[in-house]
Amino acid sequence: MSLFKKIFSPQKKETLDKGLEKTKNNFFSKLGKAVAGKSKVDDDVLDDLEEVLVSSDVGVDTTLKIITRIEARVARDKYVGTDELNGILREEIAGLLSETNQSENSGLNIPSGKKPYVIMVVGVNGVGKTTTIGKLAYQYKKQGLKVVLGAADTFRAAAIDQLQVWANRVGVPIVKQQMGSDPASVAFDTLSSAITQDADVVIIDTAGRLHNKVNLMNELTKVKRVMQKVIENTPHEVLLVLDGSTGQNAFEQAKQFTKATEVTALAITKLDGTAKGGVVIGISDQFKIPVKYIGVGEGIEDLQVFNKHEFVDSFFKI
């Protein structure tokens, strides 16, 4: 029986277990080969473990941090058997995640005094940004909250159309203009409409291109500045969506977007179709930005609030 606190419903936990299955199987297959025939955690085992973690997309810096912590435990305890390695790894990874993801299951909670709560969503094209917005809108609406979507990714007509499809599916209003319109103008109209409708949550999509970082930075800065003319200190949250299946490329995207704007939360998608789920550990640790949501399936319910205990429990579940 896991020592970690169980807060998910059995159905959601089962979805999480299944969603991390490829990552887990890949990791433990490599780990099994690394410790085969060895009974003691020594320098050779740690070198092999380092290789396993790096090749599982945990990232070099985070891997070195984990190895250093395990080395300290081995030095302290004098003898650590390879049969204890899983438990030690589990504790150290949970510890790392705890340093960034402090709050428990708070992803969908709206802070008091912030109505409407404004979320600006950023990320490159193809990471599941619009789908994440739709699924978030669904979950907020399910809580009885009034949600308004803003289609400020005016660079692509397909982005506006896709967000409209989600708005129709979820049954929430959308504010949009023509392709090529000023994104800041769309954001202004969205917030103004949200106030008129007494909305609880506003979710604004933004353009997902990185080919010119200066333009991206200028655009996002302008969108934020214009929003603040309607509601002070907005957006309340800047959510960066990353595709977990891209592995190390997700690190690079996180690096570029955190330079372009102040990212306050992360959503990591498409973990169910990849063996690269280790990116959740590395990105959370390296960027010190809370992972709020993870995508572990195609269904509308399969964007889950990230809980470090449940994630680690599923990751190490044998």
Automatic annotation (TrEMBL):
EC number: 3.6.5.4
PROSITE patterns attached to this UniProt entry: SRP54
Residues binding GTP: 123-130, 205-209, 269-272
Domain of life of the organism encoding this protein: Bacteria
Gene3D superfamilies associated with the record: P-loop containing nucleotide triphosphate hydrolases, Signal recognition particle SRP54, nucleotide-binding domain
GO molecular function, one term: GTP binding
Pfam families cross-referenced by the UniProt entry: SRP54, SRP54_N
Domain SRP54-type proteins GTP-binding, chain residue ranges per copy: 290-303
Membrane topology annotation: Peripheral membrane protein
Keywords: Cell membrane, Cytoplasm, GTP-binding, Hydrolase, Membrane, Nucleotide-binding, Receptor
Reaction(s) catalysed by this chain's protein: GTP + H2O = GDP + phosphate + H(+)
CDD domains with a match to the protein in the record: FtsY (cd17874)
Places the protein is found: Cell membrane; Cytoplasm
EC class (word): hydrolase
Gene Ontology CC terms: cytoplasm; plasma membrane
Subunit structure, interactors included: Part of the signal recognition particle protein translocation system, which is composed of SRP and FtsY.
Family under the similarity heading: Belongs to the GTP-binding SRP family. FtsY subfamily.
Task of the protein: Involved in targeting and insertion of nascent membrane proteins into the cytoplasmic membrane. Acts as a receptor for the complex formed by the signal recognition particle (SRP) and the ribosome-nascent chain (RNC).
Protein name: Signal recognition particle receptor FtsY
Organism, scientific name: Maribacter arcticus
Gene that specifies this protein: ftsY
